[in-house]
Amino acid sequence: SVDCSFSRGVCDWKQDADDDFDWNPADRDRGDGYYMAVPGFVGHKNDMGRLKLLLTDLKPKSSYCLIFSYRLAGEKVGKLRVFLANKKSAPVWEENKGKDEKWRTGKIEIFQGAETTNSVTFESERGKGKTGEIGVDNVILISGLCPED
């Protein structure tokens, strides 16, 4: 497995230069490192911020599982979507509201055909709300299918 978390991770993360705002590091409550977040007051409604995970060395014709923690905290904070580079048009995962302020786990299967996926993009879309945040943490890539809960 490959640890792509932000505090100690070995992965290559890039801010998208063509979006409306950047994701920023935010300190974890327990003080052990940080996660990436978009506060609710950043930007205007429907503005987008994209954080891209560059993937190298993924083998063709194999499957991987991307596991991550996410949080959508706050009233009408917006949407969090995940895109795979080789399927640009539609998100492979989307969440548009949190039931509470808790962190949850997202999982995405990445099937490699002859063309390999070379990046995963976490996209935050700003909602109407002015409080809360959208956060992503503990991003891990494992080979094989996603485990059941």
Give the tags:
mainly beta; five-stranded antiparallel beta sheet; six-stranded antiparallel beta sheet; Jelly Rolls; globular; about 150 residues; single chain; about 50% strand
In CATH, the architecture is Sandwich
Strand portion: over 45%
Query: What is the number of helical segments per DSSP (H or I, 4+ residues)?
Result: 0
Helix content: under 10%
Note the quaternary state here.
single chain
- The number of distinct structural domains comes to 1
Order of helices and strands: EEEEEEEEEEE
CATH class: Mainly Beta
Low-confidence stretches: none
Q: The CATH topology, please?
A: Jelly Rolls
Which structural class is indicated by helix and strand composition? mainly beta
Rg: 15 Å
Mean pLDDT: 89
Molecular shape:
globular
How do you describe this structure in short?
The protein is mainly β and 149 residues long. It has strands at 2-3, 12-15, 24-27, 34-39, 48-54, 63-73, 78-84, 93-95, 104-111, 119-126, 133-143. 0% of the residues lie in helices and 48% in strands.
How would you characterize the overall build of this protein?
This protein has 149 residues and is mostly beta strands. It has one domain (2-143): Sandwich (Jelly Rolls). Helix content is 0%, strand content 48%. The protein has no helices and 11 strands. The strands form 2 sheets. Strands 1, 3, 4, 6, 9 and 11 form a 6-stranded antiparallel β-sheet that branches. A 5-stranded antiparallel β-sheet has the order 2-5-10-7-8, with no helix packed on it. A hairpin with a 6-residue loop joins strand 3 and strand 4.
